[in-house]
Amino acid sequence: MITPTLLGEMIYDVVLNSIRSLLNPELTASWEKGLNYVAEGEITSDEYMTKLDHFIVSRTNGVLGLNNQYQLRSCYDRAAAFYKKRNQRQSIERKERMKEMTVKEMYTLEETIAKDIFEGVTYPWEVLPKISSFILELGASLPEEEYEKRGENVWVARSAKVAPTAFIGGPAIIGKDAEVRHCAFIRGNAIVGEGAVVGNSTELKNVVLFNKVQVPHYNYVGDSILGYKSHMGAGSITSNVKSDKKLVVVKTPEGNIETGMKKFGAMLGDHVEVGCGTILNPGSVVRTAYQYLSTFFGERICAGRKYLQMCR
Length: 312
Hints:
single chain; alpha/beta; four-stranded parallel beta sheet; 31% helix
């Protein structure tokens, strides 16, 4: 799709009002015909360049002799009025897009024991550095009749199911009726919501999983927030560090958002479905329930539209 710009329209207006013949496709055809004559030996290249130079000089002198700046100014004013409105519209759209990335728009906070960690923040990734200290504070306040403390700073709901082969490193909280399956590896700084499933050989690190989240088969989820009832298909992962080790940015159609973070996986909104084998690049933010099957999803905000990009 070709999108006009103010500069592009001004170039067109200058040519239209100064060298109108340049807009005639027959002119291009005549130049190509002359090149064919050169290729066939009917004229020499010097003859062709002499004619071309004459055309350029005569048209340039004609432009220099014009006094049409006031005419061009009116063309600019007419076009600029439209682009001023468009810029205002784009500014409104950018604000709406930014709003769609906020905690309020992406998550149902009543569906996580970690609701309080989101107080005072605008965007969900702002809580990533706070997860560890939050767990330590929250864990100490959990009722003993509902949660059992296992080892150092690990609280597991008594109704949760944890396979004997699973590893849970602290600080961590495993919510009520959650299921941690065979060989799951929870490295610490993890909140697993009520009724959530952490599956076979799935690895978690510095995450908040809302209630009913499912990461059931060979997943890696690091430095990420997964919303209520979101689901990651088998083998899908969140890549949380850029290969060039630079700070992660969130890329949107309106421009980049600096996060100031070196480690930032993915923010998945409520009910988001991630297909099998998907790799979510650092800085991925997915608000709506789209599926990305066996794709690379690169540093994009997806709020109402699909933005698929092969990993570079």
